[in-house]
Amino acid sequence: MTQKVTVRLPISPDDVEGEAARRVLGEAAQVLHSGGLVAFPTETVYGLGANALNGEAVAGIFRAKQRPAWDPLIVHVANFAMLDRVVAEVSPRARNLMDAFWPGPLTFLLRRRDTVPDAVTAGRPLVAVRMPVHPVAHALIALADLPVAAPSANRFSRPSATTAQHVLEDLDGRIDLVLDGGATGWGLESTVIEVTESSIRLYRPGAISAEAIEAIAGPVEVYHASAESEATPESLPSPGVGMRHYAPNARLVPVDVGAAPESEQQARWIEAVREQAGENQAVAVMLPTGWPLPENFRGRQYLWGQWSEDRELAHRLFTGLRTLDSLQVEKILCPLPAPVGLGAAIRDRLRKAARED
Ligand code: TXA
Ligand code: MG
């Protein structure tokens, strides 16, 4: 692909109405209108955006990320009028959930309109949509007045980007512009659901927990791909559920430390580290605050955050994996949080990052 000059423009999320911010947003909207690629912060992770109604522009996303064409993209909208430009209908159940969680990190699979190019949905009848709450994302989409297709702004299968620096590590020279609005809030991608009359199917646990959705709309069924179907992710109802993903270059080894109390989890952790790291200097750990290491541990450590604070763990997860990767370690050991609330999303990412396919 042709090399581009990637421009990085700072923008303050607290002042998107200011004159400097309007100039930056105007430039970014212009790039979108002319079919270019703009990375921008959202409340989850950075997105790599293109005009969702322009198939050529969308094809550019796949080239820049080196993403296979069968993995469809989420379309981001700024308001309900824009939603109507891309989806054919919204059921009352789905609308109820939108009223509860939009703008915010919840993505819906809905029947698409013909205006949405095949490239966006990988030829599928459903399109993924969400309305982000991050001021920069919202202001950009509203100003451009375009639905914006945006996957996470990382090279395919790498950890998602939660800062503009991460975006540039993966995509410098491959995209036109990155809006640098600082670190993203949640640090983990949106929750992906499909709402039908009889069920709510959850394909990707994310910033909005299954419990929070259940409190509004009733039972949520968590989708698990079978081992055979995972071999061909392009045939899954949502390809992302069955892939190696979010992965550092080092081999990631999740350590199942069981359930609370934390002292027992720490005991399992230290045992696992003793066994799997020994004195090997090329082994690194994602270490919760205050957790012990064996006395003969010689590897590197990333201080992850308070084990009881799942928001902090989510926020720092991808930065941790990228930081340890930059130290060129061979193996990263990481404890698995309990599958409750955001912990379910963190586990999901670590499990997918640990896959060997
Ligand atoms: O938080 C997020 O969702 C971020 C920000 C930028 O909005 N975006 C993001 O996009 O994580 P991406 O492309 O990295 O992940 C989208 C997930 C993938 O697992 C994909 O397989 C699934 O959504 N998906 C997208 N469109 C779909 C469709 N039409 N049918 C089924 N699954 C779809
Ligand atoms: Mg992604």
How would you summarize this macromolecular structure in one to three sentences?
This protein has 357 residues and is an alpha/beta fold. It is 34% helix and 20% strand.
Cα distance spanning the termini: 26 Å
Q: Largest sheet, described in full?
A: 11 strands, mixed
Series of secondary-structure elements, N-terminal to C-terminal: EHEEHEHHEHEHEHEEEHEHEHEEHEH
Determine the strand fraction and express it as a percent band.
Answer: 15-25%
Which stretches are low in confidence, meaning pLDDT under 50 for 5 or more residues running? none
Mean pLDDT metric: 95
Helical content, roughly?
25-40%
Q: Give the count of helical stretches.
A: 12
Coarse structural class: alpha/beta
Order of neighbouring strands in the sheet with most strands = 1-8-2-3-7-4-6-5-9-10-11
Overview of the structural elements:
This protein is α/β, with parallel strands linked by helices and 357 residues long. 34% of the residues lie in helices and 20% in strands. The chain contains twelve helices and 15 strands. It has helices at residues 19-33, 55-65, 80-86, 92-101, 118-121, 135-144, 164-171, 210-217, 227-230, 262-277, 310-326, 342-353, and strands at 7-10, 38-41, 46-51, 74-76, 106-111, 126-130, 148-149, 177-180, 191-195, 200-204, 220-222, 251-256, 283-288, 300-305, 331-336. Strands 1-8-2-3-7-4-6-5-9-10-11 form an eleven-stranded mixed sheet, with helices on both faces. Magnesium ion is lined by residues 151-152, 160.
